[in-house]
Amino acid sequence: MRVVRTSSDLKEGLAPWRRAGERIGLVPTMGALHAGHMALVAAARGECRRVVATIFVNPKQFAPNEDLASYPRPEAADLEILQSAGVELAYLPTADEMYPPHFSTMVRVGGLSEGLCGAHRLGHFDGVATVVTKLLIQSLPDCAYFGEKDYQQLLVIRRLVRDLDLPIRIVGVPTVREPDGLALSSRNLYLSAQERRVAPELSRVLRDVATALEREPGAVRRETERGLAELTHAGFDVEYLEIRDAESLAPVRDLVTAAARVLAAVHLGRTRLIDNVPVASSPATARRG
Fold first, then answer.
1. According to the CATH classification, is domain 186-281 in 3.30.1300.10?
2. Catalytic residue among 37, 102, 120, 233, which?
3. Which end of the chain lies in a sparser environment, N or C, as judged by fewer CB atoms within 10 Å?
4. Is the pTM value of this prediction over 0.85?
């Protein structure tokens, strides 16, 4: 596996594959790799002849009070994981490489980025959209792979690719979970032993809400309130639990929709956890709230 740290070396590494007409898949990450990231790599390897992975802890998506300084950066271990997974080119740019002096451009995706996590992490999705746009332009892959755990992020990236006419297919990969249901995340490393025992309650509550709504699509308000109460009782500090349209992220009053999602963000100790689950489809159309 070749490791490069500049965009010029990245382009040089990609050039022979591009000249040969080989299909290229991109897996952007912030490192601290786990089985969820490897599911992205596996999806890319299943569809593409060549796979590129990036590791970059993007400072522009962290608020001043967030964990940029302490975010795990096990570079050597991450590179071993990527190589063992069959990644052929790893791009690890520095902050100065991505944001050189006098950098002054930000990419903002309106609408989709404004609620849910966007309401609690101001500027976060502007930072995500900016770095992903740069990575996509620098590498120009045929496909790029993102996890459904970060569901709002996935929709924001799909919209920016559509709106900016980037000739890249964005592929969502289902969330990978621990046997007890906890969604894999690099930030799970922050959980204490006691918090780790509590953390799977998040996915359980979301699944219960989704199941109840599949039986009774009109019970959005009741099930939202029940889910919030259960999360609070379990010990979470809840930012939000909401039921949204799976394509537009518009709020819904009753779930007679073809595609909906139950999404939540909580704090457990110093760890922020997010998760989401789909609600099984129904034939009618939802009334947006």
1. yes
2. 37
3. C
4. yes
